TrEMBL record:
<protein>
    <submittedName>
        <fullName>Enoyl-CoA hydratase-related protein</fullName>
    </submittedName>
</protein>
<dbReference type="Pfam" id="PF00378">
    <property type="entry name" value="ECH_1"/>
</dbReference>
<dbReference type="InterPro" id="IPR014748">
    <property type="entry name" value="Enoyl-CoA_hydra_C"/>
</dbReference>
<keyword id="KW-0443">Lipid metabolism</keyword>
<keyword id="KW-0276">Fatty acid metabolism</keyword>
<dbReference type="InterPro" id="IPR029045">
    <property type="entry name" value="ClpP/crotonase-like_dom_sf"/>
</dbReference>
<feature type="region of interest" description="Disordered">
    <location>
        <begin position="234"/>
        <end position="262"/>
    </location>
</feature>
<dbReference type="InterPro" id="IPR018376">
    <property type="entry name" value="Enoyl-CoA_hyd/isom_CS"/>
</dbReference>
<comment type="function">
    <text>Could possibly oxidize fatty acids using specific components.</text>
</comment>
<comment type="similarity">
    <text>Belongs to the enoyl-CoA hydratase/isomerase family.</text>
</comment>
<dbReference type="InterPro" id="IPR001753">
    <property type="entry name" value="Enoyl-CoA_hydra/iso"/>
</dbReference>
Length: 262
């Protein structure tokens, strides 16, 4: 996408790919037109954004799945299987992205909406933000990666309690648990998240990619293996355009300019 190209669900401005994952239609339930448009944008051959921003329009970030749509489906199992397939392809694309993923979480993030918050690298919530797994309330099990992501953020025991009791988490509790990175005033959520995404998009993209890769590897690596990976990564970075610019700028006592740096 160019810096001015946009669709109803995906915009690319100043290096930030903004994806709307829920709309006011159907009570801010997950909008799969947005999910699929976002998935297509993330997998496009010309993808060159420096950050990804997940947002919802309407009163909430995402109130979860369209339960009325579930109920109306001729074959509920087939219907939900198809939705989960599309959602999971989107989560895989977010996970594979070499750039930071930021979620602007206003209002409720429930069900699969909460899963997408967990999938973000940085999540910014408002003082009124609330989260809830919501699956036990409708007799379903988690999707969107929640059963994998939540225990890695809050620990297995706490994740079990949250999922099994269908706990409602307010903004401060979500921040304390590490689900939200920070909490701001409700009206500042989108502006704060967009400003952060723009700052990251204009930063050293190769550094961000390396950080994300190291964090993923750390989930299964031993300390010794991770030390080897860090050594190779920092040595590679030292010879990269971004690494040279960053070190030279520090030595010359100026602000680094990472524009055009890989």
């Amino acid at each position: 996408m160019t810096s001015t190209e946009q669709t109803d669900y995906v915009t690319d401005v100043d290096g930030v790919l903004q994806i709307t994952i829920a709309t006011a239609a159907n009570g801010t339930s997950m909008d799969f037109a947005g999910i699929n448009a976002g998935n297509a944008a993330l997998r496009a051959p010309g993808f060159d954004a420096g950050a990804i921003l997940l947002t919802g329009s309407g009163a909430n970030f995402c109130a979860g799945g369209d339960v009325r749509g579930f109920a109306a489906a001729q074959d509920r199992s087939v219907h939900i299987h198809g939705l989960a397939t599309d959602l999971h392809e989107f989560v895989r694309a977010l996970d594979a992205a070499r750039v930071p993923v930021i979620a602007a979480v206003h209002g409720w993030a429930a069900g699969a909406g909460m899963s997408l918050v967990l999938a973000a690298d940085i999540a910014i919530g408002g003082s009124s933000t609330k989260m809830r797994p919501a699956y036990p309330g409708i007799g379903l099990s988690p999707d969107g990666g929640m059963s994998w992501l939540l225990p890695r953020i809050v620990g297995t025991g706490r994740a079990s309690e949250i999922l099994l009791t269908d706990a409602i988490l307010d903004a401060e509790e979500a921040r304390r648990l590490g689900i939200l990175s920070r909490v701001v005033e409700d009206e500042q959520v989108l502006a704060e998240a967009r400003a952060l995404a723009t700052t990251l998009a204009n930063g050293p993209r190769s550094t961000h990619a390396s950080i994300k890769k190291l964090l993923v590897q750390s989930k299964t690596a031993s300390l010794s293996e991770q030390l080897d990976s860090e050594r190779e990564a920092i040595a590679t970075a030292a010879a990269s355009p971004a690494g040279r610019e960053g070190v030279d700028a520090f030595a010359q006592k100026r602000k680094p300019n990472y524009a055009g740096q890989a």
